[in-house]
Amino acid sequence: MATMRGVDKRCRFILAAAVMTLAVGIAGCATTDRTTTGSIARSSARPIDQMNSLQLAQAVQSYGLQYQKNPRDKPLALAYANVLGMTGRNDQALAVMRALAISYPQDRQVLAAYGKSLASAGQFEAALDAVRRAQTPAYPDWKLLSAEAAILDQMGETNEARTLYRRALDIQPNEASILSNLGMSYMLTGDLNTAETHMRNAAAAPGADSRVRQNLALVVGLQGRFQEAETIARRELSPQQAEANIQYLRAMLAQQNSWNMLKDKPKS
């Protein structure tokens, strides 16, 4: 069975940090950013996960100008923090969300997005607290359960995380984002076969987007099947976005020469 034993511990740590940041983004908290009135459509009709770097930079500038005029506009601030996070400006996104959480201390959507920003900035304990405060125990939200589980995975609480993923799936069966995050959980512990099973189920589920397929490409690539991984990464995307996904895939697997280490490793 293929595992990640051929990749050294430092590479696994770097890969885990990068991938689980993406996993938190895939969790339901991110979904609200794309469907809220006043979201990315205000600057562009193209979904955020299909924007290239230039379009994202333009969106950041446009939202920034609007945000300066009215930082208490909740849909605007949520969208602005989202595009900031997509461009790697996690500290700035966190500052936007912290200010919004002060203005809306009881708002579940704001607390959930705040938790996402905290996790992206590596503040996992605070992120967990924010997501749990947003949850309603009597009527649990599957998006928040999945987001909480992704944070727990980053903290090394694997069993508790997987229990929450399955609770989320009980509420929202066959949800692509939950299945993808569950696959990530197994990938981070080196069980690539189980990870691929969940990733393929996620990619085949209704609502699966390019980020879900990118995660599938990553787990396939980690097993040394690079041509198949590139085919998956290019599927249903524009040439520019597909190339960006390929570069991301190669960058993740290039840490500590892991791409070459896995590519040269005999198949088992």
TrEMBL record:
Signal peptide positions (record): 1-29
Family matches, as InterPro entries: TPR-like_helical_dom_sf, TPR_rpt, UCP035836
Extent of the TPR repeats: 142-175
Xref: SUPFAM superfamilies: TPR-like
Keywords tagged on the record: Signal, TPR repeat
Domain of life: Bacteria
Key word Phosphoprotein present: no
Keyword Signal among record annotations: yes
Name of this protein: Pilus assembly protein TadD
Species, as recorded: Phyllobacterium phragmitis
